[in-house]
Amino acid sequence: MAASFTFPPTLVVFAALAFAFAAGVSVDDVDPFIGAGGEGFGSGALPVGPQRPFGCIRPVPDTSDWFFGSIPKIDWAHNGGYHRGDKHILAFSCTHLVGAGVKDLGNIGIMPYTGDISSKISPAFFEKVEYKSKFSQKKEGAKPHFYSVILDDAKTTVEMTTAGNFAALFRFTYSGSSTYTIVDLAHALSLGSLSGDSVTNGTFEWNEARQEMTGFALNHGSLSGRIGGAKTYFSLTFDTSMAGSDKVVLTHTRTDDTVVEGGSGGSGKSTAGVFKLPTCTPTSSTSSTHVNGRRQIWGGIGEVGDDECEVVVRIALSFVSDTQASTNREVQAPPSLTFDTAVNESYTEWKRALEVVDVKGGNGDDNVKFATAMYHAMLAPTNFTEVGGVYMGFDEKVHNVKDEIGSAYYTDMSIWDIHRTQAAFLTFVRPDVSRDVVLSLLSMAKAGGDIPRWPLLNGYTGCMIGTHAFLMILDAAVKEGISVDEASLFYPYMRASATSNRPHAGRGCLPAYFQYGYCPNDVDSGSVSRTLAFAYDDWAISKMAEMCGEDEGDVQMFQNRSKNYKNIFETKKKFFCGRSSSGDFHCPLIPELAFTKDYTEGNAWHYRFFVPQDVPGLITMFGGNDAFVKELEEFMQRSNDFPSNFLPNPYYWAGNEEDLLSPFEFSYAGRPDLSSKYAREQVEKRYSTKGSGIPGNDDYGTMSAWLFWASIGLYPEMGTGRFFLVAPLFDRVEVNLSSLSSLPSFSSSFFHASSLPHIEDLVIIKEGGGRESTTIVSASINGTPIDLSNAFVEWKDLVVEGGATLKITTASD
Hints:
The chain has 813 residues and is an alpha+beta fold. Helix content is 24%, strand content 22%. A hairpin with a 2-residue loop joins strand 25 and strand 26. Residues 1-22, 192-196, 284-292 and 747-755 have low confidence and may be disordered.
């Protein structure tokens, strides 16, 4: 269930009013700890910490279980920084990936420390993270708009919130005279403070006149190393004077083991500053932050008495310069902004973002899972637009969105994953963001030369295979989120990547792919996965060429290439198999084995049904509907023999992306009842309200968006404008985007033209059977019956003027 929390007494009235008038999915139902646990391949890898929707700064407690001294026992468990079940917090850092399967970022570590620190400062103090602190989950709280924890060793309460997309506020509550704030520039998730290998350079300067610390950390992690490093600038201030050298106590540069007392800055591979907080003077019980001498800590984890003091630390990031970081802080987190006000502003922003959807008829766990899924699906992509509209482009130059088509610039896109579910989710509930995300891909191509596969910050990582951004672009064009004229601007880049080797995000294997009609497994690894991915992407290019009025020869060429999946289908075994340049098939002796030479992040079973662009053609190769249904049902049923998510499921793998479409493909064979059955089965068995409640890496909202779709009874067929219809989990689902216009990040210009359709007011009603019923006996859209032998819903029927109604009747239990 959702973690309970208590508002500070001074804010009870505000909270009561907020909830009294709330409609739609509730912020209170969100549990950020879901997906922050799990073991092995079942780790959700999600960060736990406050963030604005699509915000850039993600302050998170980076935790460890300390099984091997200072190095976390299970490296993959900490890809998001936090892992449910750990007992120590290393530091609170400001940059994080969102549910990715790699470890990176975690830069600008901030940590309070209590005790005599002067005699302990040494290389070992930082390298072994001796400033770590124990904590308990019983003294920890989190919601989208705040995080709070009581640190046992540091004897300090930490509360965090965000102020805009680039700024965060930390409130430290402490007592006594020996409390310090450590700012460790070498801290990072890719080892970082544990070995100094990830952060290759860092520097800071304390400006006594401005009472401001500025600097940067240059991180080379698993992905950021591919773009030449992530250079994160920052600006940090305290809400109390640090004037005098006794307040800037120590500057430690591990490069030359220098410790400078009263220093004003440092630089090098491993640099940290240590600030002594003022001796605590008990706060009067009449203070505005206290009521009757006590203040509730956000999250309801305790109270602050009148014998304790608090200091607010304000930090803002920039990827442009330290001067821009100062500007971001001054605008988004000015001194006049109180901590509690920032919490409430963040709460309001999340409230408006979530309430565009309302659900009724589920149980308590259903509501928590659904609300949390929506929240996770809105953590990314990252709005990279800094104060003034500036951002660092792929050409290492500063750009301004005012000079471009979109209203904001986004990055950090795990495209191999998100193109399947999360991209369509954004089109559905945040069309303003969806449009800007797609147009950002165009800005990247203009600055860097290619449409990226996996953009991180301001560079190409080249991660994963295929060029699946084409599906996102096509889907946006089909749903008219971008105009045909705008879509045509993408086409030259799409065509170039499919017909020539490109310096960034190229396909690889192209000469052989042209020659043989498939990627030979004696030419390139992942040959099966690449061939299937290229065929899918070529289908997208053919549709774009047709839509944009390109040469008919292009349309036909790419349409023909979209059928190349047939060239690697072994007709006797009925599996997609590796095939050599001589034409010989090399099918695996054990198709259940994953991560073998011919399959990328999967096995022969996982890719057996992956032809999203031509499922009818695939059914024909299986021998017709009955034969296809028999094999697909075996795939789904046998996955239940492996209830744990710790290892890849050899059959349907709910924790990875290549087979996410599979439960819905029964509909193409005339069995939408089985699509409903097996989609619901995954909702019930693979998703929960636990820390392990997501079956695998969430991969920037991909798994969470899958749960969203399966719960409302629709599933997107990317690039066609169609949705598979299955039985909803809820009795009633309402989608209304009217509240979006009050969001700070919302572009009011999006809806000014009728040529950009969006959902005005969609109501999905389930009648007949109860919660467990999955068999649809009838359905209609806007009063028109839906043919259940081909159970699809068209986008154009969901965006009708005045609203749309989808009625579904299920069989009685």
